[in-house]
Design a protein that fits this description.
By secondary structure, the protein is an alpha/beta fold. It is built from 14 helices and 11 strands. The chain has 2 domains: about 10-220, Class I glutamine amidotransferase (GATase) domain (Rossmann fold); about 235-335, Arc Repressor Mutant, subunit A. The protein starts with 11 loop residues before the first strand and ends with a helix. About 40% of the residues are buried.
């Protein structure tokens, strides 16, 4: 049975993909916000030609249990959908062993077919794992939850992840859209509404649901954790020492002296093991400690700068902004733990 076109003329048909790995909060959130103009009779009105028609689709129609252990009803089987305008894969929950490929071959082939017919392919957070199986994201820039960056690189080394970004648009037709960690699906949905219904409509929806664009990106949310799975015991010992001594004077010089390696050898092995030069690694440790102090104390920025190892407060402010995308004061305002 072919897909029934939307009742409103020229409405965009949105296929929201449901699989057992999907997370309920993202799936239902996307559904309700995309469907806002249908749900609200008085406050928000779109011209019919600008409306969306959204359906929850899957390999077969009927009930399934999501990863959140919430049962939902799949409205349409993909075999009955000949074309769609937008495919969205919501956040999925990865198991301890990461993403297991080749579990949804029919779904992956259907996504390829929809793309060939002109559909936008969109992922919310980890939904990009399913879309990446199509091969259409190879060589493309995407964003994903920062906790899943390593898993994405392991499963799909040809895909280029940028977890610090809230939203990324790739592809020759700008038809490959990905949003980053958790609630950055807000950015994805607002982008789609702005693209197809206009900026005013997107602003109306944002106001009604109290949604915000993550205009500063997701770098402020990312907690730095130095890579430790490299197997280099000498560098691992250096990392352990730096974890508690990063604020001392000249920590790189000191840690090299404590090692059994020549300076050039140490720096080469450290960068190969951790992905960062020793000085950059120390800077990330210091900024991470400063973030916690800004969140949890009333200490001045200059005092925090001194405590994490910088006598030059201006340099610390520039470094903090470069790493997080926010000035220290703006970071404190956004992330300060409420009394």
């Amino acid at each position: 049975m072919p897909k029934t076109r939307a009742t409103a003329p020229n409405a965009r048909h949105v296929s929201l993909v449901a699989i057992p790995d999907a997370v309920a909060s993202t799936l239902f959130g996307i559904y309700d916000v995309i469907n806002a103009f249908t749900l609200t009779e008085g406050g928000l009105q779109l011209e019919p030609k600008r409306a969306f028609e959204i359906e929850i689709v899957g390999e077969k129609a009927g009930p399934i249990d999501l990863a959140s252990r919430v049962p939902i009803h799949v409205q349409r089987a993909i075999d009955t959908i000949e074309s769609t305008d937008i495919v969205i894969v919501p956040s999925i929950l990865l198991g301890g062993n990461g993403w297991r490929k080749d579990r949804y071959p029919r779904l992956v082939e259907w996504v390829r077919r929809m793309h060939a017919k002109g559909a936008l392919l969109c992922s919310a957070c980890s939904g990009v794992f399913l879309l990446a199986e199509t091969g259409l994201f190879d060589g493309k820039d995407v964003t994903v939850h920062y906790g899943y960056r390593g898993a994405l690189a392991d499963s799909f080394p040809a895909v280029r992840p940028h977890p610090e970004k809230a939203l990324m648009v790739s592809g020759r037709r700008e038809e490959l859209v990905s949003s980053g960690a958790s609630t950055s699906w807000h950015d994805l949905v607002l982008y789609l509404i702005a693209k197809h219904a206009g900026a005013t409509a997107a602003q109306d929806v944002a106001r009604m649901f109290a949604l915000q664009w993550h205009q500063d990106g997701l770098a402020p949310y990312i907690a730095f954790e130095g890579r430790t799975d490299h197997g280099d015991a000498e560098i691992g010992a250096a990392q352990a020492w730096l974890a508690t001594h990063f604020s001392v004077a000249n920590p790189v010089e000191q840690v090299i002296k404590r090692s059994r390696l020549a300076e050039r050898t140490f720096k080469r092995r450290f960068a190969a093991a951790t992905g960062l030069a020793p000085i950059a690694y120390v800077q990330r440790l210091r900024v991470e400690d400063a973030k916690r102090r800004l969140e949890r104390t009333d200490a001045s920025v200059d005092d925090i700068s001194w405590r994490v190892g910088y006598e030059d407060g201006a340099f610390f402010r520039r470094l903090f902004r470069r790493v997080t995308g926010l000035a220290p004061g703006a970071y404190r305002k956004r992330f300060r733990v409420p009394a």
